[in-house]
Amino acid sequence: MRQVAERAGVSVKTVSRVVNGEPSVAPATLRRVLSAAAALDFQPDPHAGNLRRSDRRTRTLGLLISSVDNPFAGAIHRAVEDAAIGRGFAVFASSLDDDPEREEEAVAAFTRRRVDGLILTTSAQEQSYLEPEVRRGTPVVFVDRRPTGIACDAVVSDNAEGAAAATRHLLAHGHRRLAYLGDRPAIQTAGERRRGFLEALGQAGVPVGDAVIVEDLHDETVARKALLRLLDGPEPPTAVFSAQNLITIGALRALRERGRHRDTALIGFDDVALADLMDPGVTVMAQHPDDIGRIAAERVFARLDGDDSPAQRITVDTTLIERGSGEIPAPSNT
Amino acid sequence: MRQVAERAGVSVKTVSRVVNGEPSVAPATLRRVLSAAAALDFQPDPHAGNLRRSDRRTRTLGLLISSVDNPFAGAIHRAVEDAAIGRGFAVFASSLDDDPEREEEAVAAFTRRRVDGLILTTSAQEQSYLEPEVRRGTPVVFVDRRPTGIACDAVVSDNAEGAAAATRHLLAHGHRRLAYLGDRPAIQTAGERRRGFLEALGQAGVPVGDAVIVEDLHDETVARKALLRLLDGPEPPTAVFSAQNLITIGALRALRERGRHRDTALIGFDDVALADLMDPGVTVMAQHPDDIGRIAAERVFARLDGDDSPAQRITVDTTLIERGSGEIPAPSNT
DNA sequence: GCCGCATTTGACAACGATGTCACGATTCGA
DNA sequence: TCGAATCGTGACATCGTTGTCAAATGCGGC
């Protein structure tokens, strides 16, 4: 900046004025400064500016998700990015792999860089470690999972109701021997989905004993094996509710291996790529990660704009997408 | 920092020493400073430090890809992130949607933020706009597409050879009436894949006239319609080479709609999610985005560590994954 | 011709940190 | 016992920018 000032024969302050588009600069000076800046391809350092400036904003958001290499998280990321760009914000993303330790590290890495806001899918049991940062005034918005031990905005799917609706759908097609394949129950969303499943059974008057509940399935392989075991058992389920993405894929593999994919109903929670090209198409209870991301970004910006209302919890509905596998009727000979 | 210094009864410089782990600090002082820092939950501002520090590094990388919501780009992103974390770097990501204007804006947004390195999938015709940044010493590494008009490292798939190998695979299964479904030929990778396709035909002595080439297919719907037209035509192809992800999906849809998915061979360039669960499984020439991302990150860090050898072009091989659709033989009655 | 006012400009301190250097207090060897 | 080397510490300038305030300039009105 000093070089620009010298080249244009003005003071650094005047250059600063030009760069920031302040009004009281004579047209002739303006031109001189601009051409000098162009000649040196000068780019102002926003960090140095922020140091002195009053608002002290970095125009940067931190996004913490399961993994950037994951369709659900990717959709959230994209929605956040779209909202951020319009405001001149850049987005830092970090993958957590559902590892609470990694979560704290990643948050620290971002707060050190002075992000203006944080959007995160937490996997920690509780998030009081964020307390200092929140007190400092950084807006924090949780996506997909609600916070514990700290009052922050959260944008989540309606997991319980979505799971219940999926279950009712299976019941409506005559199924009684349902299998629920779920993730680790400690994961908040997993717990809620199981609750929805059980509530739907209860409301329909189906004894819980008729259903099989298998949990702790955190990847595709484990899910596949679990369902294979059920299919090979004495009373295989006539319908399967897979409560998560990877579990759905594992279930698909298992059904196919046993050639049961045309007579066993399946509904997955969360949409799966190319589900419509399978045979039969895979019925899912789809979430709306793009809406979740968009709304989360809106909350962050609202907070940055001074909204200091109490922490909100925003629920995004899920949508049943019928593609065939969920509409397979129960065998009539039961 | 001044507050910490006062609380501990030392000078700011001593606090700085503690924070940076410099050796010459008395244990007693160290403790006092640490406890004062903890009490105020002090976090040093890295930007202020960089202002004064000699190396002037922000420990930040900029990644510019087609979209964060895209499996190929997501895998690259993840690989870059994994490499970055180990070095204490954070990653800014930005989606370009193959829009050259957006590309320049996004690059500017990152260079203003003083990223230490850039990794990008360019969609501009040429990248001389990066010249000033490169001169400033920022390492730039291209992924997936080679640069034009500027000398920078590039990590790309072997598009021509991959396409040729895929084509040879189809020819080896007896096909002669091949269809090539490609993206806009202006896109570098698309051009190379077409070249590979044609070369393979030539080497096999198959007259080019036997093949149908349809291009400008930049999304799923257009690709689907294009293939439907071919299938409904007088001499439908017996094998299809779809030169890109979305085109493969469009092709799958078209084949399925006409019930030709069991007798028309298909090989896609670039892997597709759940391709193995289709019926038949989708044979693809898979790229290795994780390798591409990892190598690109390694190049950036090597440059940052002082490697000033000439710009390299690194080619990552593609891998044929046979899943069924590519092994469908040509009808024998031909 | 003088005064007041608006316009344009620059000097200076400050933001939060670190590099340099110098100072006083120890420790050590001769 | 003394000088030299070592250790721990702080004063100060500095990084690149902006906020504050005052100075210089030009203009119109009396």
TrEMBL record, chains A, B:
It comes from the Bacteria. Signal peptide: none annotated. Residues 1-53 form the HTH lacI-type domain. The keyword Disulfide bond does not apply. The keyword Isomerase does not apply. One of its GO terms (molecular function) is transcription cis-regulatory region binding. Keywords: DNA-binding, Transcription, Transcription regulation. PANTHER family: HTH-TYPE TRANSCRIPTIONAL REGULATOR GALS, LACI-RELATED TRANSCRIPTIONAL REPRESSOR. This is LacI family DNA-binding transcriptional regulator. It comes from Glycomyces luteolus.
